[in-house]
Amino acid sequence: MYQRILLAVDGSRSSDLALSQAIIIARATGAEVKALFVADDTDVFFEASYFNPKELVDNLIAHGRKALDAASVRLSEAGVPHLMQLDEKPVAPGQISSTIVAEADAWNADLIVLGTHGRRGVRRLLMGSVSEGVLAKTNKPVLLVRSEIEG
Asked: Which residues belong to any copy of the UspA domain (predicted)?
């Protein structure tokens, strides 16, 4: 059924749970998984009063590499064929969801898997919802994996 699964990772608990589900599905269907980390620094503007832009981007890319390395280890241990991709720039600032959908289309993914943080209130209003954006922008099946609700 599924031969290509695009897995969006960000190093969070919900992303880790999404990885677990992607492994289960890939093993059951013989699918290949492409783990994708999109480096986008727009969310940080809501949380930092002072920052060094170069240091911020460097740290974000390092975080992305770490998240992808961890995913690669788990996929390898599970015997799942996989690819890793770090996109250093989203399609447009603040458009992580558009980048995920564009990558899923370009790679011809059969399924998109990602975690959702369950943000609510002002934080969701300001930061938006990547998972909601993916659902609105794709015609591919999407599996959302939710962890605990964040405030």
From this structure: 1-146
Tell me the one-letter amino acid at 85.
Q
pTM of the model: 0.86
The model's pLDDT over 1-55, given as tens digits with 9 standing for 90+, comes to 899 999 999 999 999 999 999 999 999 999 999 999 998 866 554 455 566 777 8
Calpha distance 107→78 (Å, rounded): 22
Instruction: Tell me the residue type at 127.
Output: M
**Residue the block writes with tokens 């699918």:** 31
How far, in Å, CA of 94 to CA of 133, rounded? 11
**Rounded-to-integer distance, Cα 52 and Cα 96, Å:** 22
Domains assigned to the chain: 4-146 (3.40.50.620)
Structure tokens at 62: 């390092």
